[in-house]
Design brief:
Structural class: alpha/beta
Strand order of the largest sheet: 6-7-8-3-9-10
Distance between the termini: 42 Å
Helix content: 25-40%
Radius of gyration: 18 Å
Shape: globular
Length: 257
């Protein structure tokens, strides 16, 4: 099994511990959501899992190999990473930007028919075919987020790690993205790991939630096990309860605890 493991991950940012001895084992075919208040270490943990940041202590393993020891191209084929605030340094057509996600696969002759088909599929999956010839610098934040998700998916990775992938999307596209991520996990066997702030979306998307506080894992488990009144009060300082709504679970926030 292509398990992704973090073992005793510790990251120091100056005098502050951004992560402190975090261990986790993630399985393909599941959607894992990393939650926690601002500064809890969500983005730092995701970057370590993707091999973009080397922890000060501990190690990340994939399929029994250290992630940081994999050649960059091989790591990029196995793990796609979607950052929270990507920088796009120059004007590009959206389809060309999506195609950059095929770089680890492109041979000496450039884009193949297989690469072109993969680009078409990724843009269909994300509903971005109509944006193909648009300049990405002229896209809205939500449109750009969908294009960047297509770029992450175009390599058909074993693992997709996405930092706040639903931010900036309107409710319809949020639901489309939730359905797409769950389909990739359940039908394609992809391991999905995302950070979120929206607790209701997390409850609807996740098979498993990891709840961080101040760089440590407060608790982990199913949405029902993690999103309890006690855990939410301890992590966020709120009084809230998970209830069953007609469209799925809803987090009812009553106020400060």
């Amino acid at each position: 099994m292509k398990v992704l493991e973090g073992r005793n991950l510790t990251v120091k940012l100056g005098a502050r511990l951004a992560l402190e001895a975090v261990s986790l084992s993630l399985r393909p075919g599941e959607v894992t959501v990393i939650l926690g208040p601002n500064g809890a270490g969500k983005s730092t943990l995701l970057a370590c899992l993707g091999g973009l940041r080397r922890p000060d202590h501990g190690e990340v393993w994939l399929e029994g190999q250290p992630v940081m020891g994999l050649p960059p191209a091989e790591r990029a084929r196995k793990i796609a990473f979607m950052p929270q605030t990507p920088e796009i340094a120059w004007p590009l057509e959206a389809r060309i930007l999506v195609g950059l996600g095929r770089i680890p696969f492109i041979g000496a002759r450039g884009l193949s028919a297989e690469d072109a088909n993969a680009i078409d599929l990724a843009m269909r999956q994300t509903g971005t075919e109509g944006l193909a010839e648009r300049d990405v610098s002229a896209l809205s934040g939500g449109e750009r987020a969908r294009i960047l998700l297509a770029r992450a998916l175009v390599g058909m990775p074993d693992w997709l790690l996405a930092d706040e992938p639903l931010t900036g999307l309107d409710p319809g596209y949020q639901l489309d993205s939730v359905n797409l991520l769950r389909t990739l996990a359940k039908r394609e066997g992809c391991g999905i790991v995302v950070t979120l702030h929206d607790l209701t979306l997390a409850a609807r998307l996740a098979d498993r939630i990891i709840l961080l506080k101040a760089g440590r894992c407060l608790t982990e488990g199913s949405p029902a096990e993690v999103l309890t009144s006690d855990h939410l009060a301890e992590a966020y300082g709120i009084e809230a309860a998970l209830i069953n709504g007609p469209g799925g679970p809803i987090l009812d926030i009553l106020g400060r605890s």
